[in-house]
Every structure is written in C-alpha cells, then in structure tokens.
Amino acid sequence: MRRLAALVFKAENQALTPEFLCLTLRCGAYMVRRDLTGAPAFCVRSFSGRLMGDAIDRDGAGKEDPPPLDEFSRRLDAMRGQPEEESPKGSGAAWGRAMRVSSELLAGLFVGALLGLGLDRWLGTAPWFLLAGIGLGFAAGLRNLSRSLKE
Amino acid sequence: MEAEAAKLIGAGLAAIPLAGAGVGLGLIFGNFLSGAFRNPSAAAQNQPTMLLAFALTEFTGLLGFAIAMIILYTF
Amino acid sequence: MFDQRADGPMEQFEILPIVDLHFGSIDISLTNSALWMIIGTAAITIFFFAATRRAAMIPGRIQSMAEVFYEFTFDLVRDTIGPDGRKFFPYVFTLFIFILIMNLFGLLPSWPGLAHELHTFTPTSHVIVTLALAMLTITIVIVYGFMKNGLKFLKLFWPSGLPLWLMPLLCLIEVISFLSRPLSLAIRLFANMFAGHVILKLFAGFVVSLIGTGSAVMLFGIAPFLGAIAVTALEFLVAALQAYVFAVLTCIYLSDAAHAADH
C-alpha cells in the first residue's frame, strides 16, 4: 500500500513538471488546430528548427530578400508534392463556423432596419423605408449566410 | 398596471422564442447525428445544410432576444 | 456569512473610474476597463519579450509556447489570404492575441475583499470595444481594397452572371451585407462574452444565496456549484474560440479585399 502511494506520488510529481505541462499544452494546441482546420495533427515542418526571433523578423516585416531557410522550406514543400501557391480558402471548420453563422443573419437584418429607420427619419416617409430595409436586410443576411457556408 | 411592470412582462414573453429555438436545435442536431451514424460517408457533404438550418433556427431565438432587449431598453 | 458586494449579475460590467482625468471637456479617466486592457497588454509584452529574449534553435518552454501561437496565426493568415497576406500577419496576430488575453483575463477570479473598482473586468464584454476593433478591421479592408484594386474594388458589390434587371437590387443587398460585417463581428464577440459572464455570475449567485440560508437547503447549493464549474470550463473554450473566429473573419475580409478584382 505504501509502495502504491509512493508510486502515485511519484507519478504526480512527474506529471506536474513544467516540461510535461508544456508538452500537454502544445499537444492540446495541435489537436485544436487539427480539429479547427482539418490539417494533419503533427506537421513535421512546423518545428523544424525555426528561430523565433528570426521568424518574427522575416515574416512580420516582409523583407525583400528571402533568407535561405525560406527557400529550403519551399523546396521541401515541393518535394512533398504540396502546391507552392496555396489557393486562398476559408479554414474555419465546424465549431467556428457554427458560431459564425448564427449572428450573420441578425447583423444583416439589423443593418437593413437601421438604414431604413435612418432614411425614414431623414425623409419623413414613416414606415416605408423601414419595411423595405427589413426585407433587404434579411436578404443581405441570407447572402452573408450562404457566403460563409460556401467557404 | 404600471408601465414598468408591463415592460418586464413583455420582455419575459419575448424570451419565449428561446424555448422554441432550443427544441428546434435539438431536433436538427439529433436528426443530423442519427443520419450521420447510419451513413457516415455522407455526413461531411451535408454539413453545410445542417449549419444553414442551425443558423435559421438560432435566428428565431436571437430575434426573440433582440426584441426583449428592445422592449426593455428603448421604451 | 458571505460578503455580498456587487451581487447582481450586471454589476460586473459597470465601468468605474479609478483615476479621474479630464482633458478640457473630454473625460479621459483611467477606468477599470482601461486598467485591464493595460494589464493584458503588459502581460502580452512581457510574455513575448521573455519568449524571444534568448531565441534558440531548440526552443525552451516559453519560446515553444510563443511559437505555438505564432505558427497557428501564421498558418491561418497564409491559408486564408494567400502568399500576399504576409503583410497583414502583424495585425491579425496582434488582434488575435489581444482578444484572447482580454477574454481569458476576464475569467480570472477577483481577489476577495478588493474594492469594486479593482475587480476582474472583461473589456470585450462591452460592445464599444468590440465595435472599435471591428471598425478598425473594416477600415483596413476598405483602404487596402481601394489601394490595391483601385475602383475595381467596387466589383465586390457587383455580382456577375445575372440578368440586368436584378442588378440594382442585388447591388443594394451586397452593400447592406458589406455594412453588416463589422456589426456581426462586434456583436458576436460581445454577446458571447457578455452572456457567458452573466450565466457564470447567476450560477455563482445561486450558490452564495443558498449557502447564505444556513439550513439544510445549503445542500442544494451543490448543483449550481457544479454548473458554475462546467460553465467556467465552457467559457475558456468560448474565449479561445471567439478570438479565433474574430481572427478568421478578419482574414477572410482582408482576402476579399485583396482578391476583389479577380472575380
């Protein structure tokens, strides 16, 4: 019994080391990324020795001359058979999308109604622009919706 | 009845659509899941349709919420 | 038995001045909202300074955490906007980290016994903050769209391949749809954070008032307590997801601006 307790204690101690926490966090982030974007879980490319400061400088400022690492990763991508110029595509997957779509309709309707109300106040044509605005706003909301579903 | 009390009752009534939206969402996801378990290979291509239905149903609930807020804060 | 200060679910959203400052007739007091934005920004800055101070080929703990954030956003920007989206990476990254930290810091528990002004506060639960962020995004989209495409940017509102008599109507609908973008961005973030915090506070309030009765009714307090724990876990997910959704939509809108002339 005491041995078991010692074992559990040891396991807990090990589990709580910062390395383990860090690893867990990283795995979690990768899993989230895989779930959200549908990318393969462990891309080898990601951590193939990129320098952090270097990477920020390179990608953030958008320098003219690409450093050799860039060229290397491009060749690597080419050898792996990935297209070099990736076509722009939406990468929101199920969860993000579900959260997105529900407010698109409401926002369209809201803006349409607001525009109609403003025009009515301005021109003094009591309910007509508001009604038209609500109709057009609902149509715009549906347009938003269909666009965000297509991605 | 006082106007303030009527306002609160009205806002409460306007929140009833949330119940309907809840039932509707349950139906949508339940039916989608039962369909997806019967034919998993067809699940992915029907997902946009499910999301469309989800959005339209959720819209009812959000509209009820918005009307409740309008009753509470603009009158 | 328990100190019930700020006991309603709405008091947590009150904006209270901490340091009164007036610039002419303009009120620029340091409020609790501003304080938490400053704390968040300071935390982000310290974190990334610590992460990049000793950048190594084999990353240490902090550095690899920073790299996870960095590469996540970088992949997002590259996949959505395309190769010429690099110049937007700093903006999207800043936005993502800022919203994420604002959302997450709002979930920190307040120090017990502290004044109401210093309680934990979520700036993103105010529509004015999220609307300002969304307006910034849309301004960048419009300015960049006109800079890159010139007047061809207006093709965004002119769908092709439809009968001519439908065009004015559809154009109007597209304009309204474009105008609704910042609003939908702002309302989504605001509503999620606001509703989450209200629900959290309601559950916590149930626990406090049930325990406050002091009789056997106290045992019923377990149910809302478990509920509050579950909602807290859900709120962490929502906080991260909303920051992600905001960043994704920013990328999609920027991508629309960059490729407006193509379609």
TrEMBL record, chain B:
Classification via CDD domains: ATP-synt_Fo_c_ATP5G3
Site feature Reversibly protonated during proton transport, where: E58
Keyword list, A-Z: ATP synthesis, Cell membrane, CF(0), Hydrogen ion transport, Hydrolase, Ion transport, Lipid-binding, Membrane, Transmembrane, Transmembrane helix, Transport
Coiled-coil segments on the chain, per record: none
Record membrane topology: Multi-pass membrane protein
Bilayer-crossing regions: 6-29, 50-73
UniProt key word Lipoprotein: no
GO molecular function: hydrolase activity; lipid binding; proton-transporting ATP synthase activity, rotational mechanism
Xref: InterPro entries: ATP_synth_F0_csu (IPR000454), ATP_synth_F0_csu_sf (IPR038662), ATPase_proteolipid_c-like_dom (IPR002379), F/V-ATP_Csub_sf (IPR035921)
Location in the cell: Cell membrane; Membrane
Family: Belongs to the ATPase C chain family.
HAMAP family listed in its UniProt record: ATP_synth_c_bact
Protein name according to UniProt: ATP synthase subunit c
Species name: Hyphococcus luteus
